[in-house]
Amino acid sequence: MNLPPFFSLSPEVQRARRLRQPLVALETAVVTHGLPYPVNASLAADMEAQVRSHGAVPATVGVVRGKVCIGLESADLEHLASDKPMRKISRRDFGAAIARGESGGTTVAGTLLAAHLAGIRVFATGGIGGVHREAPFDVSADLPALAETPLVVVCAGAKSILDLPATLERLETLSVPVVGYRTDDFPAFYARRSGLPVPLRADSPREVVALAQAHWQMGLRSAVLLVVPPPEESALPEDFMERAVSQALEEAHTQGISGQAVTPFLLSRVAALTEGRSLQANLDLLLNNARLAAQVAAAFPDVGRKMV
Ligand code: PSU
Ligand code: MN
Prior knowledge:
Elements: E1 7-9, H1 11-19, E2 23-26, H2 29-34, H3 39-53, E3 57-64, E4 67-70, H4 74-82, E5 87-89, H5 94-100, E6 104-106, H6 108-117, E7 122-124, E8 131-132, E9 135-139, H7 142-148, E10 152-155, H8 164-173, E11 178-181, E12 200-202, H9 205-217, E13 224-227, H10 238-254, H11 262-273, H12 277-298
Helix pairs in contact: 3-4, 3-12, 6-7, 9-12, 10-11
This protein binds pseudouridine-5'-monophosphate (PSU) and manganese (II) ion (MN).
């Protein structure tokens, strides 16, 4: 596969590609914009460790000084985690960042694009972007990217700051199968349940892979969205979470927050309003998703076994 010259693959990822070992893409907008320093840096390393210990090779995606990195060296990860300001790179932002030699964290949309070019089939994130509440014109670029990029995306549903019913409807329109992992209820990111039924269910990584392969063999190019509830120990009660989300939304409205700043603003306000409980839930669900993504990647029938 010929990648553009501004791609940079880590030695670990290059080796995995050569040996056809299972690879899991990880995003970095969560590092640059979703979590505070220094937990963002340790979280990224912990997600990679989860992937490694569950039979796959992590490929953390980010843009470092104009290079699209697939697999990040620790110095580059530290640069993304601590140096400010950083770009938030969705699909439309690559051209500018590459041409100007800038750095930034890739969103779900951005990571999907880069990971697909690098031949990766599985991706773990926290919660996808979607249709914003009371602002149906603000729709995350994650949705069209999911519609056009054939990866299994493991997440805890869509971020609870969003309009979840509208996001699910849009995913249906975009032909993205939404598959509950051992659940029939669409998870609400910080909370285990949203009360919305999830249209499909799978109970094992093999089942997920069989569904995804058949989906793509039908000629479809959309992602398969695998949604898994956040771990019980740190998940927030729905009403508690909802109170914090409503207040954060109100503050965003009065302060006139717009564009790319909306999601990071809401996540950090919810963290403050829940006294860090949402942050703990966020960290735990990211690790949980990385673990499941590794198991799914390893369940593709054509992969080489990874020696652990
Ligand atoms: N999930 C998290 N934290 C985050 C995000 C997701 O746990 O910070 C990021 C993802 O990178 C997602 C982005 O793609 O937020 C969505 O931003 P927007 O709504 O501006 O498209
Ligand atoms: Mn937006």
